[in-house]
Design goal:
Strand content: 15-25%
CATH superfamily of the largest domain: Aldehyde Dehydrogenase, Chain A, domain 1
CATH topology of the largest domain: Aldehyde Dehydrogenase, Chain A, domain 1
Strand order of the largest sheet: 16-17-18-15-14-19-20
Distance between the termini: 53 Å
Largest sheet: 7 strands, mixed
Structural class: alpha/beta
Number of domains: 2
CATH architecture of the largest domain: 3-Layer(aba) Sandwich
Length: 508
């Protein structure tokens, strides 16, 4: 995911500052937030952020080099080893989470400007980004009073035992570009509640939300070095993963990148949580109304222009109902309004980058070449000559071994796969290296539960695209390691310590 490195623009022969050239609602795009301060970068390297709907420059940010990343890690390490943060009570840290939540809620309009231009999401959805982050931060703040960070245990030897859950240490949090604010919240909130310090590494394509979080952290007086924010490309990001001063990496992104991160963490036995790719199946049972299923799946796939790791893109249906479902999906997808994400009438915006559209178009060509039936879409919408738009696309008669059935496309492309019966449909759904999400479409809730138990997936929904970070989110197989969200999402940021005493301590 390379980022463009550009020279600073000029006005009247003089160099523009980043503050002068940016169109983004950010105050310090030319700096990094390290050690509680906005510090100057070690070089003049810049990253261009291009508006996905217009292909025009949106803003530029400083690009972190090796010295900048090392400085951020040093600040986090010092804050954990010597600062007050890990020694505060969970309740005290929870108050900072609530303040951060309130501050992000106030920046909702700014998030509403950043997210559509960076990633193509609809403005109406983006406006709720601050509120979504607030819900996550508040949920973890609530756990301060209910989670058993220390509980008594009966030892086999000794008089009294304690099971203690302590912060894992310095956390490197690496987020992707598709839903940065939600993903920042789901990593930063549990890490901070646990008592960890964090180096947040934003994606070059969508760094704005990380800057917003840093600005709010500064405003609420978060202790120095507890949260540090930089933007870097892959080479410098790898230095964060390799650094022995970093105790844990939490990463959301592609399975290919996740394999690399897992191998680097394995070299030094660093902890890691990996939320990776998906190729999620919707299993349509024979009692489900086809028109309802088609409408539900089409609407869900328009979310974030299909740039969702848990999208239901493999539609498995009995062979006898295959053609009917393909026709219904093609009809509903063909009616989707694609266009400006700031237009209230738009139902699907652009893809995030030219590279991403090239990827999607490449997979559409593979689908045609490998014999699938192109039932809808497949090209670029008419009249949209600027911006990285693509038509919502439906393939029928897809072979489950083909590229469009097995590889993550990360765009609005649905593959309908025929199955001989229910058992075969479940086998097809499970025949993938991934296991992030799935759904069962049936009017019988008991049957849905039975099929759900047979699907090898971290989440299984019923009659819809459903995920719930309030419970837990993560994948089986090559869709990742660990879980994010809810109580389960707190565990990866804690180390378990057993304490065995010869007497009963005060308070027990």
């Amino acid at each position: 995911m390379g980022a463009a490195r550009v020279a600073v623009a000029t006005i009247g022969g003089r160099a523009m500052t980043l503050a002068e050239e940016t169109k983004a609602p950010l105050r310090h795009a030319d700096r990094f937030f390290i050690g509680g301060e906005w510090v100057e970068p070690s070089s003049d390297a810049k990253i261009e952020v291009i508006d996905s709907g217009t292909e025009e420059l949106f803003f530029r940010v400083a690009e972190a080099r090796e010295a900048d990343m090392s400085r951020a890690v040093s600040a986090a390490r010092e804050a954990f080893d010597e600062g007050p943060w890990p020694r505060m009570s969970h309740a005290e840290r929870a108050e900072f989470l609530r303040a951060l939540a309130a501050g992000l809620m106030e920046r909702g309009a700014d998030i509403g400007q950043l997210w559509p231009r960076e990633s193509g999401v609809l403005h109406g959805i983006a406006l709720a980004g601050g509120y979504g982050a607030k819900i996550i931060l508040d949920q973890y703040a609530d756990l301060a009073g209910t989670y058993p960070f220390e509980e008594p245990a009966t030892p086999m030897a000794g008089e009294f035992g304690l099971l203690v859950r302590e912060p894992v240490g310095v956390v490197g949090a690496i987020i992707p570009w598709n839903a940065p604010m939600q993903l920042i919240a789901n990593k930063v909130a549990p890490a901070l509640l646990a008592g960890c310090t964090v180096v947040l590494k934003s994606a070059p394509e969508a760094p704005g939300e990380g800057y917003v979080v840093a600005e709010v952290a500064e405003a609420i007086g978060l202790p120095r070095g507890v949260l540090n924010v930089v933007t870097a490309d892959r080479e410098v990001s790898e230095l964060l993963v390799r650094d022995p001063r970093v105790d844990k990496i939490t990463f959301t992104g592609s399975t290919a990148a996740g394999r690399r991160i897992a191998s680097l963490c394995g070299e030094r036995i660093a902890r890691c949580t990996l939320e990776l790719g998906g190729k999620s199946a919707a299993v349509i049972l024979d009692d489900m109304d086809i028109a309802t299923a088609a409408r539900t799946l089409s609407e869900a796939e328009c979310l974030m222009s299909g740039q969702v790791c848990s999208s239901l893109t493999r539609i498995v249906v009995s062979r006898a109902r295959h053609d009917e479902l393909v026709e219904a999906l093609a009809s509903t997808f063909s009616q989707v309004r694609v266009g400006d994400p700031f237009d209230p009438a738009t139902q699907m915006g652009p893809l995030a980058a030219q590279r991403q559209r090239d990827r999607v178009e490449g997979y559409i060509a593979k689908g045609v070449a490998q014999g699938a039936t192109l039932a809808a879409g497949g090209g670029r919408p008419k009249g949209l000559d600027r911006g990285w738009f693509v038509e919502p696309t439906v393939f029928g008669n897809v072979d489950n071994s083909s590229a469009i059935a097995q590889e993550e496309i990360f765009g609005p492309v649905l593959s309908v796969i025929p199955a001989e019966d229910e058992d075969h449909a479940i086998a097809v759904a499970n025949d993938t290296i991934y296991g992030l999400n799935a759904s069962v479409f049936t009017n019988d809730v008991d049957r849905a539960r039975e099929v759900a138990r047979r699907l090898r997936s971290g989440t299984v929904g019923h009659n819809a695209f459903r995920t719930d970070f309030g419970i837990a989110f993560g994948g089986f197989k090559q869709s990742g390691i660990g879980r994010e969200g809810g109580r389960e999402g707190l565990l990866p940021f804690l180390e378990t310590k057993t304490v065995i005493l010869e007497g009963r301590p005060a308070g027990y």
